[in-house]
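Good morning N.,

You mentioned wanting to compare the apo and holo forms, so I went ahead and generated the holo version with NAP. This is what I fed in:
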Amino acid sequence: MTLHTELATMMNSINQTFQLGGEIEINRLGYGAMRLTGQPGNFGPYADWEQGITLVRRAAELGVNLFDSARSYGPEWTDKLLGEALHPYAAQIVIATKGGIDKPAPGNIQVDGSPATLKKQIDEALVNLRVDRIDLFQLHRVDPQTPIEESIAALKEAQTAGKIRLIGLSNVDRSQLDRALAIAPIASIQNRFNQEERGQDALVDYTAEHGIAFIPYGPLGAHPMKQGAALPAQSALAWLLRRSPNIVVIPGTTSITHLEENWATWELLAADASRLPVVSQ
Ligand SMILES: NC(=O)c1ccc[n+]([C@@H]2O[C@H](COP(=O)([O-])OP(=O)(O)OC[C@H]3O[C@@H](n4cnc5c(N)ncnc54)[C@H](OP(=O)(O)O)[C@@H]3O)[C@@H](O)[C@H]2O)c1
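and this is what came out, ligand included:
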């Protein structure tokens, strides 16, 4: 099926929101903060810090209420930027961050999902984000040295201690998700998926059946370490938002114009699905 036909035939309207963990309502277009870091390598603080603060506040003003961050972005710098931009937090704002990966130098990715490291990273994220409790804490990647059950048990302990509200996963397959589900409820998974990279189709459907949010990263097909969307943004977002009601998109941008365009796409789809963008390729 060509993209033209595909979009033109999708005429029913989309759900505007998703109940994260069955308990927090979020708009299905959020914001991914990874690019508000030093370049190259998403390392260090974002060079134009004040512009980053303005952009995040503009997102909240538009109605974006899910902000996605991670320990490894900077590292710690996007958590700090979100904390500075959004604290004191409006009631509807939902902060998602991640742990289990650190980045002591550009290009040096250290995966550590041990309970002691996750506990330390949660405590540091609470300070950086200026929150008493993190709404969604995602295991960024499964540590090959630590059984996923041990990592999830540590997150469950943090949940019981009131430090995190919901637990999410990232970069997991079906069997890892099932192993995690045996330990604790899982609110979301975040894997790479977009109009041209559809390897997660089965997991999108499986998570939908279980009421778990599927948060595709790289929704516009961008390379994680390079600037620039590979796909036309409007149709890429429209395709994902139509694909399944549990998909929540978090396009990353450093541009307020692009932020506003992405939000407008969500509004357009939510208000009148018959005005879907139709793109021929
Ligand atoms: N869990 C993981 O392992 C993982 C990995 C990677 C990313 N993520 C998360 O997913 C989020 C999104 O991923 P991503 O940033 O890599 O990829 P993306 O959202 O597919 O693409 C971002 C790129 O697209 C451009 N862009 C955004 N809106 C645009 C528009 N309307 N028109 C034209 N270009 C546009 C941005 O450039 P401008 O700045 O110029 O707008 C940026 O370079 C990240 O921020 C992060 O939160 C998670």
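DSSP finds nine helices and eleven strands in the chain.

Happy to go through it together on a call whenever suits you.

Best,
F.
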